[in-house]
Design goal:
This protein is α+β, with helices and mostly antiparallel strands. It folds into 3 domains: about 30 residues, no CATH class; about 80 residues, FAD/NAD(P)-binding domain, CATH 3.50.50.60; about 60 residues, no CATH class. About 20% of the residues lie in helices and about 30% in strands. It contains 5 helices and 9 strands. Strands 5, 6, 7, 8 and 9 form a 5-stranded antiparallel sheet that branches. The longest helix has 13 residues. It is extended and about 65 Å long.
Length: about 210
C-alpha cells in the first residue's frame, strides 16, 4: 500500500501526542510514566516496553487458560471447514475436523475469525456476493518468520528496534531485548523476515 493511501486517522493513532515541542522536550527531559501510569507516555517516544519472556506465544497460552477457567473448551490441532449462518435461528454452525480427521459441528451466536479474509469468504455459507468475494480475493497480506538469536552478553547496542532498508538483506527489522534464563541475564535478537503473499504467489519482501 502506498503511503498516499493511508488515512490520516490511522497515522494519528500511530503518532498520537507527538509534536515538535514534545519531541524537543523529550530529548532534553526524557519522559517517565508518572505513578506507573503508562497510558500518559507518548508511544512514539517510548524507550522501554513489556515483552513476554518466552515470546508472544505466552499471551495465547494465558488466553487459553482463561477460556478453560470460564468453562470453555479449546480444540487444538483442529481445522475449520466452514461457517454456516441460519437466518431463522440467527445462529452459526461451525464445522471442523480434529487431528484424527473426525468431523465435528459447533453452534454459536457469534463467531470471531483470525483467518485471512481471502480464505474466510470461501468457507462462509450462504455464499457472499460476487462483489464481496472479488474484494476479498484482491486483498494482500504478509506472513512473518521470526528467528531468535540468544547472546550471553547484555546491551550489545542501545537501540531495540532497528529496521533494515537494504533490499539485498531479506530481513524486515531486528528487535533486541534482554531477560534472564536460570538467573543469568542474556540478550535476545528477534529477526523478522517478512514474507509477502500476493494472489497466492509468495515472495520475500522487505
Amino acid at each position: 500500500m502506498s503511503c498516499k493511501e493511508i488515512s490520516a486517522d490511522w497515522a494519528a493513532q500511530r503518532i498520537r501526542g507527538l509534536s515538535l515541542g514534545s519531541a524537543i522536550k523529550n530529548a532534553l527531559l526524557p519522559q517517565r510514566s508518572s505513578n506507573g501510569d503508562r497510558t500518559k507516555v507518548i508511544k512514539t517516544l517510548i524507550n522501554s516496553f513489556r515483552y513476554p519472556r518466552k515470546g508472544p506465544g505466552m499471551m495465547w497460552e494465558a488466553c487459553a487458560e482463561k477460556v478453560k477457567a470460564m468453562g470453555g473448551k479449546v480444540e487444538m490441532a483442529a481445522r475449520v471447514n466452514g461457517c454456516a449462518f441460519d437466518e431463522a435461528t440467527s445462529a452459526w454452525t461451525v464445522q471442523f475436523k480434529d487431528r484424527d480427521g473426525n468431523l465435528h459441528s459447533v453452534e454459536a451466536e457469534h463467531v470471531i475469525s483470525s483467518a485471512p479474509m481471502r480464505e474466510l469468504v470461501c468457507g462462509i455459507r450462504p455464499e457472499v456476493s460476487d462483489r464481496t468475494r472479488r474484494a476479498a480475493e484482491s486483498l494482500k497480506y504478509r506472513d512473518f518468520l521470526t528467528v531468535m538469536l540468544i547472546l550471553k552478553e547484555r546491551n550489545k547496542f542501545a537501540d531495540n528496534w532497528i529496521y533494515i532498508h537494504d533490499p539485498r538483506v531479506k530481513v524486515g527489522r531486528v528487535q533486541t531485548k534482554w531477560f534472564r534464563i536460570r538467573t543469568k541475564p542474556v540478550t535476545a535478537w528477534n529477526i523478522f523476515v517478512s514474507k509477502a503473499t500476493v494472489s497466492g504467489n509468495p515472495k520475500m519482501k522487505i
